[in-house]
Design brief:
Largest sheet: 5 strands, mixed
Radius of gyration: 25 Å
Strand content: 15-25%
CATH superfamily of the largest domain: Glutaredoxin
Keywords: Disulfide bond, Electron transport, Redox-active center, Transit peptide, Transport
GO molecular function: protein-disulfide reductase activity
Protein name: Thioredoxin domain-containing protein
CATH class of the largest domain: Alpha Beta
Number of strands: 5
Shape: globular
Number of domains: 2
Helix content: 40-55%
CATH topology of the largest domain: Glutaredoxin
Low-confidence stretches: 26-46, 48-59
InterPro entries: Thioredoxin, Thioredoxin-like_sf, Thioredoxin_CS, Thioredoxin_domain
Amino acid sequence: MAAAAMSTETIAAALGTRRLLHPPAFLSFRFRPTPRLPGAAVAASAPAFRRCKAAAKAHDDDQLVLDVAESTWDDLVLHCESPVLVEFWAPWCGPCRLMHPVIADVAKAYTGRLRCLKLNTDENQDVATWYGIRSIPTILIFKNGERKETVIGAVKDTTLAMTVERFL
C-alpha cells in the first residue's frame, strides 16, 4: 500500500500538484488533460487543397466587402446611388470578426443591389466620431447619402437581411 501511495505522490510531485489528505468533494487537484476540440484535429489533418479552397473562399468574401476610409468615404458611401451597408469594426474586436462572414453572405445575396463596406475605427476615428459610433460592431445603412438605419452588436444574418430588405 505504501508503494502505491508513494507512486501517487511521485506522480503528483512530477505534475506539480498537491494532494490534500481529505480534499473537499468539490475540489480535485488531479491532473486532467485538456480535451481536444473535434474540429481542431480535423482542420490540422485536412488535405492541403481543402485548406487552400477555404483560404480562397475567404479571399473571395473579402472582395465582396471592400474597405472604406475617410479619404474615400464621400465617393463610396455618400455619393452612391444604391443603398450602402457600412460595418464599423476593429481588428481586436471578437464580435466584429464574427460579423464578417455574415456581412459577406449579405453582400453575396444582394450583389448589384447593395454595396457592403467596412471601416476600421482604429484607423478612421474621425468618421466614427462624426456618426457617434460608441460601440463596435455597428452597422449603418445609407440610402441616397442619408443615414437610414443603425444596427449595434453582432446579429444573425436573417436579422440583418430583414433590415436591408426595407431599403432595397
